[in-house]
TrEMBL record:
Component of a P4-ATPase flippase complex which consists of a catalytic alpha subunit ATP8B1 and an accessory beta subunit TMEM30A. The flippase ATP8B1:TMEM30A complex can form an intermediate phosphoenzyme in vitro. Also interacts with beta subunit TMEM30B. ATP binds at D415, K416, T417, E514, F555, K578, R611, T691, G692, D693, R783, K789, N812, D813. Residues 55-106 form the P-type ATPase N-terminal domain. Mg(2+) binds at D415, T417, D809, D813. Residues 835-1089 form the P-type ATPase C-terminal domain. GO terms for biological process: Golgi organization; phospholipid translocation. One of its GO terms (molecular function) is phospholipid transporter activity. This is Phospholipid-transporting ATPase. Its main location: membrane. It catalyses: a 1,2-diacyl-sn-glycero-3-phosphocholine(out) + ATP + H2O = a 1,2-diacyl-sn-glycero-3-phosphocholine(in) + ADP + phosphate + H(+); a 1,2-diacyl-sn-glycero-3-phospho-L-serine(out) + ATP + H2O = a 1,2-diacyl-sn-glycero-3-phospho-L-serine(in) + ADP + phosphate + H(+); ATP + H2O + phospholipidSide 1 = ADP + phosphate + phospholipidSide 2. Keywords: ATP-binding, Cell membrane, Cell projection, Endoplasmic reticulum, Golgi apparatus, Magnesium, Membrane, Metal-binding, Nucleotide-binding, Translocase, Transmembrane, Transmembrane helix.
Amino acid sequence: NSSKIQDEEKEQRHWEASVWSFLKPSLQLWYSREPQKDAIITVGLLVSLHFFLQGNAIKTYKYNVLTFIPLNLYEQFKRAANLYFLALLILQIIPQITTLPWYTTLIPLVVVLGITAIKDLVDDLARHRMDKEINNRKCEVLLNGSFQDSRWRQIQVGDVVRLKKNDFIPADLLLLSSSNPNSLCYVETAELDGETNLKFKMGLRVTDEMLQEERQLADFDALIDCEEPNNRLDKFLGMMQWNGERYPLELDNMLLRGCKVRNTDVCHGLVIFAGGDTKIMKNSGKTRFKRTKIDELMNYMVYTIFAVLILVAAGLGIGHTFWYEQIGSKAWYLYDGLNYNATYRGFLSFWGYIIVLNTMVPISLYVSVEVIRLGQSKFINWDLQMYFAEKDTPAKARTTTLNEQLGQIQYIFSDKTGTLTQNIMEFKKCTIAGRSYGTGIFVCLNTKTSPVDWSWNQYADQKFQFMDHLLVANVKSKKDKDAMEFFKLLSLCHTVMVDNKDGDLVYQAASPDEGALVTAARNFGFVFLSRTQDTITIMEMGQEKTYEMLALLDFNSDRKRMSIILKFPDGRIRLYCKGADTVIYERLSTNTQHQQTTQEALDIFANDTLRTLCLCYKDISANEYEAWSRKHKEAQLVMGDREAALDSVYEEVEKDLMLIGATAIEDKLQDGVPETIATLAKADIKIWVLTGDKKETAENIGYSCSLLTDDMTVHYGEDVNEKLRIRQTTRRRQPPTNFRRARQTPEEPFFTETGKNALIITGGWLIDFVDMACECEAVICCRVTPKQKANVVSLVKKYKKAVTLSIGDGANDVNMIKTADIGVGISGQEGMQAVMSSDYAFAQFRYLERLLLVHGRWSYIRMCKFLRFFFFKNFSFTLVHFWYSFFNGYSSQTAYEDWFITLYNLAYSSLPVLLVGLLDQDVNDRLSLKFPKLYIPGQQGLLFNYKNFFISLFHGIFVSLIIFFIPYGAFLQTMGQDGEAPSDYQSFAVVTASSLIFTVSLQISLDTSYWTFVNCFAVLGSIAIYFGFMFDIHSAGIHVIFPSVFTFTGAASNALRQPYLWLTILLTVGISLLPVICIQFLYKTIWPSVGDKVRPHSMLHSCSGHSVKVHLVRCDLVSLHPVGSEEQEEVRASDGGKEEEEGARALPAGQALPSLCLRLFSLTRLRRPHLVRAEHSAASCRPQRSKCKHQGDSPRRGGEHLS
């Protein structure tokens, strides 16, 4: 019934109109989940959004008073190790199977859980305070027709907010109007993306003109259609419908929460997203957790230990079953009053041994690993050798979980611009209408070599230097129309903003390239003065002209070009375009001139490692523009894939272009880049450069930074296409069933010739090239997009199973940084997006060498040594119970006292191995850099793998065997000095425990390569703590207080007064350590490692003579940093060598420098694995305090050794 349907539709529209008039004061938003379709606004949608859109209060904390304990325990028990020990604790409560008191598991578990809980609580309290402070900030909100103070948490979607200079933006706002001309608003985005340079935002012209007063803002009743809340900081799509017109909304119209209003007195904004829907909050979610290879291996080894534990417990349980059948059931004196059969007793014995042997799975392992990683991160932060004083930027470890992975890097993927280069652009050369200008061009024609004098131009930037006077003369004469057009394009086709400070023009450019080009045009007489939403004003050779901007076709990484359509004062319409030569040449008109000569000039510029851009133009008729403009407006309003729609429209107008010329900009290499790349290459690290530059530029940069060398055979993408095609064809012909097997078997190499190979490949050749590229010493990928950069990293990770590191400085490197195993950000000229997404950050590429070869290698060595020893000491401790079971009927009886089992990992053996994991080093930092081959064992995973794990297991088995059977033999048929037999169980437990403590303490001493006072104190202190605790626990006083808990009354004093037992302990420890000493001697003598070969070099610096000379350039803490540079202190023992004495000041024999000498002396001992002796008397000399800004009041920044 069509009439009935029409009546229902009318009623529905009337209802919607009524509700809309009710909701009109507070603007409603709706999110189109299917933006490609025409969405219909219904009343139900509006009402539901009114109630379900988030408020502006934020909540970043995890716990409150009621939920902290249960929620924190729940999160901690999601870890398998904690859950395992909780299960053990439950088993120990069951009387039938418990073999150890409950506190032997409870105390270590509570300590581990408590430490983690306290850390979580401190972090969450800080989040509570921050949330409270932010939610209670004040701002002005339009309420009841006037602006009133309101707190941030009270702001709702649809509110109109007034902000003033230096105010933080409380939510994601649509900029409506501002006090600046053309509705401009400057914001600082430091809290959002880390960038401190100002960015400008611009409101729509219609809102700026009609929404300046409070009354106008109160009557504002537009409808906003926008995208769903997301974390894209670089994108916003929306549409405003108001007074029957539709207006496109973009990111430039938005003020995002977390930014700060600058250089703008007043601005008004409409709340689009609030609270958790804002972009900054969407970006505060959990990032992808990166795990190291050692983490994965360690987890598998813990699973292996658990499997071994199950097998051993099962074997001992079966043993108890047979023992009880044959012996236990027949011995009347062993009757326990329980009528269990042998099988059930074996079952109980199995669970009993699960409890007794639980220390094979170390509960404190994960906590200790986190402590070590935290310490390594602090050492990186404190390293003054990675501090960039020019920008006051220290190195920063933004994660604490990946330090040892720095010692296993196999592939480095680096951006070029701003990473290898300084990203400080200088206009050096250009070609105009087929003629080239600039330094070194046509020297025979232009004999002047002095810089151009810009005194004729009052607006010139005096810092700008250009050597070719001929071009300046052509421009000043106004006769060279091509040159005039060339610089007019540079002054008009850009997105630069200008700020007039005391009569001086200050340009704020989105990229250094744009700033350099606009500055060049400024010096040549085409001065960019100002811009509005619709106009650009420039000074053309002394005449001020204003051009109407009809459209701006912005640059992105896919388009690789930008264009602007302008209406000249005389009414002409012209499109100016600048971009990469590859995309410009595809769009040139067939009538354009100078293509060949310009291409030759571009090749010359590229060979000089200059960055190039082609410039072109196109005249457009009024009718043609009108037709195109309609399509452009429609594309701007698309709510689906707006970028694709706009690109399609742009393509229609960016064709049949006329070439003007090309620019060449110099971007110099950073200091130390060639040396760093050469050193990393010696460490067998393969470096790939991924850049958007053209092939010739990338290749020449490769040679200048030593990535490419003369002894390499360079292969280009075009050359290897046939090899790739043949390989793919062969692979396709393989039967499907054999494909996986074929991938596992090594294929014939691409390059059969001997020697080094390098590959230079463009973005179009990136598919199926991994095998070929990995055969090369160096790879350069040019003309690649940000997405292709990430794809390259992903391909190598996936097919080569290699540890990768990506390093970059800009937003276009973020995907690559996040994809790699380790991401490094450089805080350069392109903002802080790369740093904010990275795991490690510093200011210069050359610091990567020290990060990997020093901190990374040390962290890997320390972690591997820690894990090997940790497993060994736990096997040695636990397996004594296994040997004891053969003599106690497999009855789950423990070999030690209960409290020794409780405190072994917590107090008796934890500190020495923890300090080895924090401080140990095989060679010092100078030798680590001098001998890059030391890095290779980490790449190959030689220091910690299943082989090392089983070596630790068998070593622990051997030591546990000695620790049990030598005291067992000594206790058989013995008589004490006082006529008493010390062969009781408690005395035996004391002797085995004492032997174990001495053995593990001396074993870690043998494994320590780098002795400090702290290490020595830890080893001796652990032994002292053991004896102190043991005599207290075995005292009569504590037994009187807790008779059922402390049952070894007088056992220690009674046993250790027997010299015979001390001799037993000495014999046990000696036999346990003797094979280790012999094996270490043989390895270092017959099969020395690279570190063993290098270590004598460090001895030569200090042990070659008798007198001690101290190099002192500065007497501050910075000079005490333990690095082998000649500018800093060095303690050396020399034998009169000329090189050593040069520049040094010898300390007279009687001169005294106690305070300084103690510092130098302790640092020297910390720096080298040997001791230097010096004599000094008691005079006074105090070192000056460091004046380094980042050292501040904490001398720890001088490097990890100062800690």
